[in-house]
């Protein structure tokens, strides 16, 4: 089993703002299956390495159930469990929490506020994009943490795009970002359907595939001087 480590420079704006961020693409030797949970168990050793590489423990990883909706959940204190049911997005400003979202064609959206240190990680597939999960997340960040849209850094990761999919979710997400007042929006421009050798694609692989993992947390603070 081999995971090719890449820097993913499109995540640099988040790193430069002091956030811990990573993306685990297709893992060599793991093809995946129709059973999502079985596939995630196979991928877990590599995903654990990515979590620990950011300075977190696996027990600190919080995930959304991902039901292809547009609901988000704010992790302020303890929640309903490390997998939050019935949501596709997670928000927090806790430094002991690492957010995780699985994708295999759907849009993965990182959001970070370098001013308030609030952050969000979203799963934006066709239905979630149509439901404007990004808009809901920005509104929640404003309401819960006092974030201003113009301060937010937003990054869209690899997702399926035309002609491999009839709906251009990337263009819709970019339009929603502009409408929400986000000025610092970055689209990596990568199509999962056009790069199946490097990324899992649920559509191109007809459901028999793996899952990629996006991660977002607070960066490890620099040591304070005496």
UniProtKB/TrEMBL annotation:
The lineage of its organism: Bacteria, Pseudomonadati, Verrucomicrobiota, Verrucomicrobiia, Verrucomicrobiales. It catalyses: S-methyl-5'-thioadenosine + phosphate = 5-(methylsulfanyl)-alpha-D-ribose 1-phosphate + adenine; adenosine + phosphate = alpha-D-ribose 1-phosphate + adenine; inosine + phosphate = alpha-D-ribose 1-phosphate + hypoxanthine; adenosine + H2O + H(+) = inosine + NH4(+). It holds the Pfam family Cu-oxidase_4. Coiled coil: none annotated. InterPro entries: Cu_polyphenol_OxRdtase, Cu_polyphenol_OxRdtase_sf, Cytotoxic_necrot_fac-like_cat. Belongs to the purine nucleoside phosphorylase YfiH/LACC1 family. Keywords: Hydrolase, Metal-binding, Transferase, Zinc. Transmembrane segments: none annotated. This is Laccase domain-containing protein. One of its GO terms (molecular function) is copper ion binding. Gene3D superfamilies: CNF1/YfiH-like putative cysteine hydrolases.
């Amino acid at each position: 089993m081999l995971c090719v480590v890449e820097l993913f420079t499109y995540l640099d704006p988040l790193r430069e703002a002091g956030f811990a961020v990573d993306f685990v693409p297709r893992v060599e030797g793991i093809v995946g299956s129709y059973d999502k949970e079985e596939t995630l168990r196979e991928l877990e050793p590599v995903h654990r390495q990515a979590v620990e590489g950011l300075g977190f423990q696996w027990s600190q990883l919080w995930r959304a159930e991902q039901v292809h909706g547009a609901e988000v959940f704010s992790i302020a204190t303890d929640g309903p469990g490390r997998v939050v049911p019935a949501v596709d997005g997670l928000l927090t400003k806790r430094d002991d929490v690492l957010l995780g979202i699985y994708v295999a064609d759907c849009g993965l959206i990182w959001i970070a506020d370098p001013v308030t240190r609030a952050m969000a990680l979203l799963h934006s597939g066709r239905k979630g994009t149509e439901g404007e999960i990004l808009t809901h997340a920005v509104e929640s960040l404003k309401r819960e943490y006092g974030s201003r849209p113009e301060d937010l850094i937003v990054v869209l990761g690899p997702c399926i795009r035309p002609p491999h999919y009839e709906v251009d979710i990337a263009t819709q997400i970019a339009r929603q970002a502009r409408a929400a007042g986000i000025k610092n929006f970055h689209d990596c421009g990568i199509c999962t359907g056009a790069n199946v050798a490097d990324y899992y694609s649920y559509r191109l692989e007809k459901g028999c595939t793996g899952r990629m993992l996006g991660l977002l947390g607070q960066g490890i603070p620099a040591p304070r001087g005496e």
